[in-house]
């Protein structure tokens, strides 16, 4: 796999000290390409406060002049090596294991962050309780954990805009077939929405998260 640096432990936005409410499930937020940990951190006030939250920063710098951070290179996205995504997801899982061993964890990612979240779930199907996939996709190719994932069928919410022209159409089609076979899928296509998150989508995400809290006994 392509080498990806470890996540910076100091580049994490926490909603509360790590040792606080150790019994609360942790929802980790993964931002998109060219963004940073404070971006999705702005969603925290709109999400159920029964969660503790951590917004992490991706470890790579995008190609100039794009600002912010990236999980993997997006040049020639139509034909990119899936190992790029797996390498980024492996680094993310390493961070999770280091900071929150044994803790119940859900993932919420936007765009590239959603791709990494789904890939992390595929690498470690037993480690994550659920995934919220906003404007992302499932990476083509088979992984060792896919067979177990198809048995476990963890809850996944997939939201995307009908006018999203960022994610290649063939990746959307692939995800449309892949997710129902490997998860308990719910979600929605939002009319007129481009590559972003709407108020309606955020309300649907909150409803999904509240259902996950109930399932976890919170």
Write down the overall mean pLDDT: 94
| Share in β-strands | 15-25%
How many beta-strand segments? Answer: 7
In CATH, the topology is named Rossmann fold
The topology string of helices and strands comes to EEHEHEHEHEHEH
Main sheet characteristics: 7 strands, mixed
Q: Over the alpha carbons, how many angstroms does the gyration radius reach?
A: 16 Å
Keywords: Hydrolase
Domain Phospholipase/carboxylesterase/thioesterase: 21-211
Protein name: Esterase
Family: Belongs to the AB hydrolase superfamily. AB hydrolase 2 family.
How would you describe the overall organization of this protein?
Pfam families: Abhydrolase_2. Keywords: Hydrolase. Residues 21-211 form the Phospholipase/carboxylesterase/thioesterase domain. It comes from Microbacterium terricola. InterPro entries: AB_hydrolase_fold, LYPA1-2/EST-like, PLipase/COase/thioEstase. This protein has 218 residues and is of the alpha/beta class. The chain has a single domain (12-215), classed as Rossmann fold, CATH 3.40.50. The chain has 6 helices and 7 strands; from the N terminus they run E-E-H-E-H-E-H-E-H-E-H-E-H. It has helices at residues 37-41, 82-99, 112-123, 146-152, 169-182, 199-215, and strands at 12-14, 26-30, 52-56, 105-110, 130-134, 155-161, 184-190. The protein has a 7-stranded mixed beta sheet with strand order 1-3-2-4-5-6-7, with helices on both faces. Helix 2 packs across helix 3 (112-123). The protein is globular. It starts with 11 loop residues before the first strand and ends with a helix. 38% of the residues are buried.
């Amino acid at each position: 796999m392509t080498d990806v640096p470890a996540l910076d432990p100091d580049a994490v936005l926490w909603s509360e000290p790590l040792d606080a409410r150790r019994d609360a499930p942790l929802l980790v937020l993964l931002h998109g390409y060219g963004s940073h940990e404070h971006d999705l951190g702005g969603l925290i006030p709109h999400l159920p406060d029964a969660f503790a939250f951590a917004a992490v920063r991706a470890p790579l710098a995008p190609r100039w002049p794009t600002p912010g951070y990236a999980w993997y290179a997006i040049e020639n996205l139509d034909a990119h090596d899936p190992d790029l995504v797996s390498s980024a997801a492996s680094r993310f899982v390493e961070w999770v294991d280091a900071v929150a061993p044994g803790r119940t964890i859900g993932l919420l990612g936007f765009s590239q962050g959603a791709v990494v979240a789904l890939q992390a779930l595929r690498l470690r199907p037993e480690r994550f309780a659920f995934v919220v996939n906003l404007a992302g996709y499932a990476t083509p190719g088979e992984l060792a954990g896919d067979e177990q994932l198809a048995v476990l069928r963890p809850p996944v919410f997939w939201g995307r805009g009908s006018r999203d022209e960022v994610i290649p159409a063939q990746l959307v089609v692939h995800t449309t077939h892949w997710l129902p076979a490997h998860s308990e899928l719910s979600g929605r296509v939002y009319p007129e929405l481009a590559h972003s998150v709407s108020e309606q989508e955020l309300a649907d995400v909150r409803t999904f998260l509240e259902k996950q809290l109930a399932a976890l006994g919170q």
